[in-house]
Amino acid sequence: MTLYLPRTTTAQITEALATERRSVGGGAMNLVLTLVIVTDEAGHYDAVQAATEAGREHPSRVIALILRDPGLEPALDAEIRRPGTFGPGETVLLRLYGPLADHADSVVTPLLVPDTPVVAWWPEGGPVHPAADPVGQLAARRITDSHRAADPLADLVTRISHYHPGDTDLAWTRTTPWRALLASTMDQSCGWVTRAEVVAEDHLPSADLLAAWLSQRLEVPVERRVSSGPGITETVLVTEDGPITISRKDGRVATLQRPNRPLQTVALSRRHLSEYLAEELRHLDADEMYAATAKFLAERLARAEVSA
Amino acid sequence: MKEPVMPGAVPNPLRSVLDRRLPRIAGPCVLVLFGVTGDLSRKKLLPAIYDLANRGLLPPGFGLVGFARRDWADQDFTQVAYDAVRTHARTPFREDVWRQLSEGVRFVPGEAHDDAAFDALVRTVRELDESRGTGGNYAFYLSLPPKLFPTVLTQLKRSGLAESSGDSWRRVVIEKPFGHDLASAQELNALVDDVFPPHSVFRIDHYLGKETVQNLLALRFSNTLFEPIWNRSYIDHVQITMAEDIGVGGRAGYYDGIGAARDVIQNHLLQLLALVAMEEPLSFTADAIRAEKVKALSAVQLPDDLATGTARGQYTAGWQGGAWVPGYLEEEGIPPNSTTETYAAMRLGVNTRRWAGVPFYLRTGKRLGRRVTEVALVFHRTANQVFDHVATANQGANSLVIRIQPDEGVTLRFGSKVPGTAMEVRDVSMDFSYGASFTETSPEAYERLILDVLIGDPPLFPHQEEVELSWRILDPVEEFWAKNGRPEPYPAGSWGPPSGHELLARDNRTWRRP
């Protein structure tokens, strides 16, 4: 069930939310977090759907801020999707008109679930300095997505220079299955790694992060090569005993080849947005590994630029 | 500068405590499943294995071998596994995942006593090592009636499968019942011990894999709120209930002669009691937790008079949940003069400074009012100096209820003023629920436990010492019951026989209605 409140105020929205909650029994007690999505009219549908799906694992109040034409008179339209209909949490779509868009925090503040963490998510990229953003300031965790920027790598690198604990980027989230598989290959004894390679499509900061991670953790040079994709297509750990190669040509199934072992295959599907988000919401404290890796990447790129 | 530790990869430089996104993934191995035709395999184990694969927690080099007395080829078993996965898996079905998994599926037909069948099993796992790179690591899951254990264990030893070489490992998983009394438990253990070293033996009590049971430790030891009142100064008594609405059904052959106490109290309920009663472990390692559980179980005391401190019953025909159901003695495969109890309850004490004088009431039964497992801590009543007894007439004792299943969660019950001009207090609940959708994606107990076996992580598995201590508690009760007549009948769909209620009524207490 959806409730429409055109030209409304946060007081009315709060009251409507409380009424909805009472009608399904109980207060907002099971919600574990508030997820604030900063989006636009074009992007909100996919983002809200992903958030709703992720909400099955993390019951949350989802507040989607849809920023409309800044030239209009300030106004607020609300659309409340009842808890239980689209997931365990409730979803509030807010359309912010005119200068109100610059003061979204004033709209969000009264609607946050008491005591629980706030997560901000910019599905279309995100501000350069998330922790300084008005909505970002309310949040303990700020999720950006540099893949959506015009120049993804530059976007990631610029943002990391403003890093504040709690920042994270879905470019990093996308690497988790690869990193997990790479880490598990090194759970078994393998020779000393002397260098590594990461092959992926161009303009894919995930691949650069993966390369930086390997390089920093293993203290070896890692070459980033370009293929036609999709996504990351191959990683190679060159060891004294020979190469350990993981290739994924079709974005679905990977093969693992290591010295003196039969060729193994493993399902390694590219995931859905909702899965990235669910992973992101699992740990709400600062991701120090992301910070270290992204800073390492930025330094390396800066050095490369100086020497070029 | 960190230490160069790459060769041997211990510790793995790609893993870090700071990197909590990386899941634990099992190393290359073969899981050999004995008794794949059973209900447990189809409904729980095979789906759990698929779910693990789907979550990316199984290694690329993984093999699954089914062993059973069926004239099947590999593809027949693959089909059975496929059907089981499609019907019972909790995660969405993905063709890619299934294809990778099914390439490593093999089936070996044969009987447990058949040397040739076990030699074929040896060839099969070696072939998997060759073709799948499973690294010579084998886990044997004995989902079998206990009477077959000796034969299978002997065969594993004879065929050389139990022997590991180099840094490869062998693990064996056994399901309850771990014997039917202390002597038989020790006998079984000696048998297993003879073939596998103690650290390779994983005893599965699937209750310990449940999120809510693990949450019991989190609730107690990660909060400041509960631990200060978790003792005799505040707690009047504890009730631990595991009720089933089903009857004995297809388990007649196993159940008769075993009964409710051996089936449930010895393992699940005493493990829950240990988790509720134990002191804080020094760390969260298997050894530290076990040490505290062992202390708690060692402190358990039986009632002085077993006639008034225990109760047992047997369900008779009746209406349950809108259907007429037969009594225990009329169930198929049950002898008409059976004295097996289907309801068991007892009052135990825990003789520690924390719990002295606080009774722990345990009850379990089949064909009870509804299916529920919960632990309830009932607090002392207040002295009520401020409010007169009329005002608090409707108020019960405060209680904290940990719901294990279904509707997993925690409820706190306390008194609150009824709105109005008069001062009247009535019980209300504060409720935390994992929620239907929340648990949808949380791992099933078997998933967690199978992964722990493949990784070799033992905290959630009861140790032989705990098993023996539990039998030491239960054996005198069973002996007493065996000598003293028949269990008291109770109608199906009720909450047990009168003696079960009298057990608490004698102490001026009542069972909660769960």
From TrEMBL, chain A:
Glucose-6-phosphate dehydrogenase assembly protein OpcA N-terminal domain boundaries: 51-158
InterPro entries xrefs: G6PDH_assembly_OpcA, OpcA_G6PD_C, OpcA_G6PD_N
Domain Glucose-6-phosphate dehydrogenase assembly protein OpcA C-terminal: 165-292
A Pfam match: OpcA_G6PD_assem
Source domain of life: Bacteria
PANTHER family to which the protein is assigned, alphabetical: OXPP CYCLE PROTEIN OPCA-RELATED
Name of the featured protein: Oxppcycle protein
The organism of origin for this protein: Thermobifida fusca TM51
Lineage: Bacteria, Bacillati, Actinomycetota, Actinomycetes, Streptosporangiales
